[in-house]
Design brief:
The protein is about 40% helix and about 20% strand. It contains 13 helices and twelve strands. β6, α5 and β7 form a beta-alpha-beta unit. α6 packs antiparallel against α7 and α7 packs parallel to α13.
């Protein structure tokens, strides 16, 4: 009997040791000592929330915000399709995978310690169970205020503020030089679309509009001001495009679209087109107004208007 009890005891010990050495089924599980546990209190649109002081694994589900995180050296492990397709972000998302707000299990597997999304996300409740989730409403803040706010969220407010100050100074100087060259009253239109649908933009809908109108102080045509300034954009047909065209045109062009309207006499006879005052840019690089996109856009404008 004594030998049986000893044998059973040895068997129990061996089973216990074996179980303790089994690997975790969670591939993303990290030792607790490596977890980032220090937090700060961040004031969101819906109240205060505890977020990591130095987030290490960030999921961004709102295209207009991902570039803000990248500009602050945030490690994005999951991001939506628009950001993955943006050539401006090449090199920033090498360690990220494409996700959407519907991929709850996929996001969970990424083991994020911070999720950033838009206020219209329908799965906020589910996301909040995975990690601290902060949502923003597009347009509620000014485009540079938005960057500063993301800086606060990531505990990098000073870095964000410095970039804003430098960017504004550079854009203001460029605007002064451009107006001195083309004239104070010269107008600029920003258009996008193809043969199926065209748009003109106000001063807060990306596409470089914030730089041209807000920072540089360039003027938009009266028709654009009347129809696009309030809403941010205005849909029109290519036939009436000349009515909304300024002395200069920035065409945010999707090369995969039907751009056959550019072959029409109506388009070719627009003064800006005839006089080589048209800047065609890659729409994918001009959609957003984050620091990475803004730096790219500003350099394009300086090159176009000033030849620098």
């Amino acid at each position: 009997m004594k030998k049986i009890l000893i044998a059973m005891l040895i068997m129990i010990i061996l089973i216990s040791v074996g179980c303790s050495n089994e690997p975790s089924n969670d591939l993303n599980e990290e030792p607790q000592k490596d977890k980032n546990t220090e937090t700060i209190t961040y004031k969101t649109e819906n109240g205060d929330i505890e977020v990591p002081k130095n987030p290490q694994r960030i999921v961004v589900l709102y295209g207009t915000l991902s570039g803000h995180v990248m500009a602050l050296d945030g490690n994005i492990v999951g991001v939506e399709k628009w950001s993955m397709d943006n050539p401006n972000y090449e090199g920033y998302l090498d360690n990220a995978v494409e996700v959407s707000d519907e991929n709850i299990e996929k996001i969970m597997d990424l083991d994020p310690d911070l999720i950033i999304t838009g206020s219209t996300n329908k799965n906020l409740d589910k996301l909040q169970k995975i990690a601290p989730t902060v949502s923003f409403t597009y347009g509620k803040l000014g485009y540079l205020e938005q960057y500063l706010e993301v800086g606060k969220l990531m505990n990098k407010e000073d870095e964000a503020k410095k970039w804003i100050d430098d960017f504004r100074a550079k854009a203001k100087k460029a605007g002064e030089d451009i107006k001195a060259k083309i004239g104070e009253d010269s107008t600029v239109s920003v258009i996008e679309g193809d043969n199926k649908q065209m748009y003109v933009f106000g001063d807060n809908w990306g596409r470089g509009t914030e730089i041209l109108y807000k920072e540089m102080g360039l003027k938009m045509p009266e028709k654009v001001k009347e129809d696009a300034l309030k809403e941010g954009y205005f849909a029109l047909s290519s036939e009436v495009l000349p009515e909304y065209s300024g002395d200069y045109i920035v065409f945010s062009k999707n090369t995969e679209g039907d751009n056959s309207f550019q072959e029409t006499e109506t388009y070719k006879n627009i003064p800006a087109v005839k006089n080589d005052r048209l800047l065609e840019v890659d729409a994918n690089r001009f959609y957003f107004n984050d620091p990475i996109s803004l730096d790219y856009q500003l350099d394009k404008f300086i090159e176009f208007f000033l030849g620098e």
